Amino acid sequence: MIDLPNIHSIEAVLDQPLDKTLKGLLQDRLADTIQCGLQDYTHVLVVQDGDTEQQVVEAIGFSPLKTRIEGRPDCVDWDWCEQHPGWWELLYTVGDDGFAYILLVEDAERLPLAKLCRSEGPSR
Q1: pLDDT tens sequence across 49-71
Q2: What pLDDT sits at residue 123?
Q3: Long-range contacts of 113-116 (CB under 8 A, 24+ apart)
Q4: Sign of CA dihedral 103, 113, 60, 17
Q5: Exposed e or buried b for every residue in 12-33, given b needs 16+ CB within 10 A?
Q6: What is the pLDDT of residues 92-101, one digit of tens each?
Q7: pLDDT at 1
Q8: What is the spatial distance between Cα 6 and Cα 3, in angstroms, rounded to a whole number?
Q9: How far apart, in whole angstroms, are the C-alpha atoms of residue 77 and residue 64?
Q10: What is the DSSP letter of 66?
């Protein structure tokens, strides 16, 4: 798991060796947040094979495997889902000020969140 709670952490991780597609996704999200003026309102979390639901909850405060309000399992409540080669991108908006969590989820066979993404599919 790579927890990137602010723009400085996103910029710093781009200097690290990363999967080529992941690095491109992070660069694109960084550019998008700056262009939209949301650099202080974006928290990116990279979820990789082997990461647990509890680790995700500790990082962002909720489980993407359950609805945020009712806690219903295996029922999505993301605001956006997009498939990229080897990765899923999930967007969760919070409040009215523009704050959002962006989850970049490795499309790994054993990862429950990737399985949920595959079953529910991208946003239309």
Answers
A1: 999 999 999 999 999 999 988 98
A2: 66
A3: 113/47, 113/53, 113/56, 113/64, 113/65, 113/88, 114/88, 116/64, 116/65, 116/74, 116/76
A4: negative
A5: ebeeeebeeebeebbeebbeeb
A6: 999 888 899 9
A7: 97
A8: 9
A9: 8
A10: B
Residue length, the chain?
A: 124
pLDDT of the residue at 9: 96
Kind and range of the H or E run holding 90:
strand 87-93
Tokens of 33: 């947040």
Residues of the chain with pLDDT under 50: none
SS3 content of the chain, % helix, strand, coil (to 5): 30, 25, 45
Q: Which amino acid type is present at position 77?
A: D
Contact present, 82 and 122 (Cβ < 8 Å): yes
User: Three-state DSSP class for 69?
Assistant: coil
Is the overall model pTM greater than 0.85, yes or no?
A: yes
Q: In 1-124, which residue ranges form alpha helices assigned H by DSSP?
A: 7-13, 20-35, 53-60, 112-120
